[in-house]
Amino acid sequence: MVAINDFKFDADGYLVDPNTWTPELAQAIAEREGVTLTDRHWVVINYARAEYKAKGEAPTLRNITKNTDVDTKELYSLFPGGPGKKAAMVAGLHKPTGCI
Amino acid sequence: MKTFLILGGGTGGTIMANKLVKRLDPQEWKIVIVDKSEIHYYQPGFLFIPFGMYKPEDVVERKKSYLPSSVQFIQSEIEKITPEENEVTLKGGQVLHYDTLLIASGTDIHPEEIEGMLDGGWYQNIFDFYTFEGTTKLAKFLEKFNGGRVVINVAEMPIKCPVAPLEFAFLADDYFVRRGIRSKVELVYATPLPGAFTKPRSSAALGSMLDQKGIHLEPDFAISGVDSSRNVLSSFDGRELNYDLLVTIPTNMGADFIGKSGLGDDLNFVPTNKATLQSSKWENIWVIGDAANVPASKAGAVTHFESDTLIENIVHQLKGEPLEETFDGHANCYIESGHGKALLIDFNYNTEPLPGTYPLPVVGPFSLLKESTINHWGKLAFKWMYWNLIVKGRPMPVSTQMSMVGKKP
């Protein structure tokens, strides 16, 4: 079991350094958020990590639904309360922001 | 004779045509620019038209008036690019060969991407302000609007000029106050982002602005559709917003021909090196402005800063020299806040908008991340700078790379 307290999070609960993320930490963050991870969650998390690696930011909802077999409805049932934010949080990425 | 082909004659295409004529040998290079329209719109002015601050004719110029006479202008739609053959096919079937290609085809709104957006209410009580048609029709609608619920909605990110929807909300508040009907108008700002201000310093400095102006915020609003028969906007998490007037910023996408050519991402933006502005895949293809998928704001000021890196890199490449990785994502935007005031923000890929003064320390004259009257005059003066300095590729009195001078980290 990974000790979630060993990692630094911002005030909103996002991992400060996305590069310190591990799959075990995803389990711990999900638990903290009341989400039980299934294979379908991992489709989203793995895709989000790959996008982060390629582009340096978390993918948008459109990006996830276009490039995985998870549609918007399922995304909301997997990550209740805002899949864009929650998926990024569990994947150890920063929350989606604007320029200001 | 070699051909330097530019696709798109808006802000980026025009700036680069003006820079290229000064740097390419006219004995060796022919510069050709293709665009479907001969009108060059001053797009920052679209924001002012609904509120009567600009007249429609204030934002319309002819593209050719701002292009060097030696540049050949072809008015045509573009069918596709065939990068393996160094060819561009136009709508009528004409094929243009190029030695070097610059993609400057921008971004457009796609209301058809949102379920129900074009059913019934479109241009009746649903308007965009990102097109000449949308903003002029919205101006006519507002003249007869005497109260009700106005919802301003950003469908999804990224969008062109990401601060414009907020400016629209602030100017709408100002406009209804001036007309004496503010108490009869409810203003709602619905955004897919977690807030109106999402960066820590902006949020701390400006977080209360919406409340002060009586604008209701609906954060994390991921639009699922519009029902024109009930005048309701709904989200994937089951929220419904009624409106009497819906001002939408629909999905933004790059040009269709980019997608057809297999050169785009999910939204038809071209994968581009964010520091050199060269296509990620093709050495003789360059990308400027909104058409690129770089993580900078889609805005004219960014396009202008990009042009300084681009012109040097194009010349470097033609001489076989290494490219400069000098584009830092620099953006500089005035944000109208209503009642004769504006904010100014200055930032890049790595530095969020910070408070301070710009471009000089203490004396400014512009204040960063803070409302002031001088900032508003700066925004209005920008129109003169756009037509006389920026699109003509002339130097501006500010640095290309973002500077920390005057900023308070």
Poorly predicted parts of chain B: none
Helix content of chain A: 40-55%
Oligomer status: heterodimer
CATH-level-4 superfamily name of the largest domain in chain B: FAD/NAD(P)-binding domain
User: What is the C-level CATH assignment of the largest domain in chain B?
Assistant: Alpha Beta
Shape by Cα distribution of chain A:
globular
CATH topology term of chain A = Arc Repressor Mutant, subunit A
Q: Strand portion of chain B, in percent?
A: 25-35%
As residue ranges, the low-confidence spans of chain A are none
Total E-strand runs of chain B: 24
Instruction: Please name the CATH topology of the largest domain in chain B.
Output: FAD/NAD(P)-binding domain
Main beta sheet strand tally, sense and closure of chain B: 5 strands, parallel
Give the amount of beta strand of chain A, in percent: under 5%
* CA-atom Rg of chain B in angstroms: 21 Å
Mean pLDDT of chain A: 91
Highest-level CATH class of chain A = Mainly Alpha
What's the alpha carbon Rg of chain A, rounded to whole Å? 13 Å
3D structure, described in words:
The complex is a heterodimer of chains A (100) and B (409). Chain A is mainly alpha-helical and 100 residues long. Chain A has helices at residues 23-32, 39-55, 61-67, 72-78, 83-90. The termini of chain A are far apart. Chain B folds into three domains: 2-51 and 60-106 and 255-318, FAD/NAD(P)-binding domain (3-Layer(bba) Sandwich); 111-251, FAD/NAD(P)-binding domain (3-Layer(bba) Sandwich), CATH 3.50.50.60; 331-390, no CATH class. Chain B is built from eight helices and 24 strands. In chain B, the strands form eight sheets. A five-stranded parallel sheet of chain B has the order 5-2-1-9-20, with helices on one face. A five-stranded parallel sheet of chain B has the order 11-18-12-13-14. Chain B has a three-stranded antiparallel sheet with strand order 6-7-8. The radius of gyration of chain B is 21 Å and the shape is globular. The N and C termini of chain B lie far apart (51 Å). The chains are: A mainly alpha (100), B alpha/beta (409). Chain A binds chain B through residues 55-57, 60-63, 66-67, 72-73, 76, 81-82, 84-85, 95-100, and chain B through 156-157, 162-163, 166, 191-194, 197-199, 202, 206, 220, 222, 224, 236-237, 251, 266-267, 295, 297, 331, 335, 345, 347, 353.
